[in-house]
Every structure is written in C-alpha cells, then in structure tokens.
User: What shape does this take?
Amino acid sequence: MESTNSHQQSASALLFNQYKACILLPTYNNHQTILEVIRKSLLQTNHVIVINDGSTDNTLAIIKDEPVQIVSYDKNKGKGYAIRQGFKYAIAEGYDYAITIDTDGQHYPEDCIHF
Assistant: This one.
C-alpha cells in the first residue's frame, strides 16, 4: 500500500514536471534552517534552485552536497535581487514557472502542490 507521503511526492513531482516548474530558495544566512527546507522541497520535486544571496555564515558548506542547483554571489544584494536572479536562472534552464520559498522555515514546501 502506498503511503500518503509518497503519493503526494509522486503527484507533486508529476505536476512540477508537467508544468516545467521549479522551487526557488533565496537564502541569506539561514544555516540553521536551510537544510530542512531543501530536503522538504526535494520531497516535492528534484527541480530545486538555491540562490545564495552573499551569505557570510556556513550556508554554502551545508548545502554543497545537496542535489540542488546553486546560484551564488559574494555580496548580499537583498531578497528582491536574489529572487530576480533565481527567475533569470530558471528561465535560462527552461522552466516556465517557479515557486519561491523562504529558507527560514516560515513556509512549507509540502504546500507547493496547492499552487
């Protein structure tokens, strides 16, 4: 019998693929919460892009082995800039849609299927 979690994962993955959609995770110094957000996002789709907005903590070291695409730059330029860079990258990679999720844990990746 298939569990609810794997059914949701399969449904989410199919929808992300069907609509050529990805999850964008703009981040700045969220080393304490980013790994959990990434892993929950990966349960929804393997199309996850992290935009490192010049973090000065160990964010990059924490996520370097995760199966996500990473856009990173050295100087913090703000969330708006990070999101725009994420959208540019997503378009260049062939995505038609993107959902942004903050990496501080205030949003739930499992809610993506409702969008």
The mean pLDDT is 92. The chain is about 35% helix and 20% strand. The longest strand covers residues 21-27. The chain has one domain: 4-114.
